[in-house]
Amino acid sequence: MEENKSTPSNFIREIIDEDLKSKKHSLIHTRFPPEPNGYLHIGHAKSICLNFGIARDYNGMCNLRFDDTNPVKEDIEYVESIEEDVRWLGFDWDDRMFYASDYFDRLYEFAVQLIKDDNAYVDSSTSQELREMKGTLTEAGALSPYRNRSVEENLELFTGMKEGKYEDGAHVLRAKIDMASTNMHMRDPVIYRIKKATHHNTGDKWCIYPMYDYAHPLSDWIEGITHSLCTLEFEIHRPLYDWFLDALKLKNRPRQIEFARLNLTYTVMSKRKLLELVQEGLVSGWDDPRMPTICGLRRRGYTPESIRNFADRVGVAKRDAMTDVALLEHSVREDLNKHAMRVMAVLRPLKVVITNYPDDKTEEMETTNNPEDETMGTRKIPFSNVIYIEREDFQEVPHKKFHRLSPGNEVRLKSAYIIKCTEVIKDDKGEITELHCTYDPETKSGSGSMRSVKGTIHWVSAKHAVKAEVRLYDRLFVTEDPASDDKDFRELLNPHSLDILKECYIEPELSKAKTGDKFQFIRTGYFCVDPLSNDEMLVFNRTVALKDSWTKIDKK
RNA sequence: UCCCCCUUAGUGUAACGGUUAGCACAUAACUCUCUGAAAGUUACGGUCGUGGUUCGAAUCCACGAGGGGGAACCA
Question: CA–C1' span, A163 to B69, in Å?
């Protein structure tokens, strides 16, 4: 990866610096541990950039580990999409792709050890009874009648659980900690449950599965993880994370550190809500370009570089935050500005006839592909007497600060000539149907003409242009924080989040474009070719509009 | 009602007892421009409150206020 810019420091990197200085660790080892039960989103991207970024900067390692301890929720489909998304973001785990389920044998042995040390017991209460004995936030829990079973009996029952002698729910294995703890997670948490389900990785080998709280610290320890980074909601689980490592007397222990998850304005980030949007057809799928998923952003035209830069800018801290989506948008613009080829595309066409230009003539106008990058070269654009311009680039009665085309006024056609509007043609309803203009042959682009006018607009030659479909996206929700609103988030969807334009004209150069290709449509925004494109019709997605100070002036 | 965590401009972050409290985004204005883009310049704007410790506090302490989290055989 060609990343030279250093990622800003944060409290986690400071902890790592201290651990290195004190020689607690010499090699830093992190992990990104998604549960394969859904698609990754921009919030996961923050975690991925954090974990893999730390490994990169400290010459350490970062594992990809699937936290797959609940077979009924997980699926191989998700495993594959997660691998693809992490790789697309630009990170690599070499040969260190693991599953928590790879450790089921060792986890089982650890559990046996806990039983032998009187640190765990089999409880045969129902889940209802378990819940009742748990106590409340203000009252201590009750000791289970099964809490003092002998080691022998516990061992026999746990073996039986493993061998499938009991039905789901008949028994659970619990850690023996403290039913009076003010931390509910320490009140003898369940660590194994019976689930006669097929696991995507281990098949039918197991019918008991470890719980997250138990599997996670031990998986970290098995992999030699030094710093186990997770989000704030696991803070309260940390004493339990440490308890297992203590109880099993493990050396070289990993340390769990929590940070605030990413929230972005005008979208939702919870897997549940995202799933509902997909299932209820409120979006076209996980990769709908309006979704905050990695695959959605990819289809929208975001680049891995821009997302990595965004993650760096957002930073890492412990306080809950709501990041302005404008920061994400700025990050793509910045990247695309440097790399995207400039092309001309007219989204809402208005026909312009240049009356003093021969109707059988075509000129090839030369233009630069990217003023920010000379190495991208130049290309030719055909010019003729009938062109299309953007409807909004003409005002019959111009706003006082408007300096594009209006009756009797001149404007420059980018990379071509200066034209003057001589006549406005309307239909019987008063709608403007076309404009008649004259051009000044002395003002050809690159000819050294000294004449300059205030405005420059984009255009395409009508007879050479290619028709295309362009999809304009806006924020998915109308409020900044739809998740916190009293209303159901569905009621807060932005009805104008997708605007499909079917009568757009693009310069012929673009007919060669392939899925994923990215362009700047001059003066309108950054666009990429959607996978829906086929031989008959190119479909473009607007990644993000260009910053626009004109509409602000116009509104004043 | 109990426990844990958090609190710096509009937003996201930096400061590690000593700086005019820095940076980015956003906002506004100007310059420049064959993209009303980009770029450049400038402006705007902040330590939750009250006490205390100290020569000195955003930083340490206490209390208060506000926000978040916590009782799944989920992760």
Answer: 38
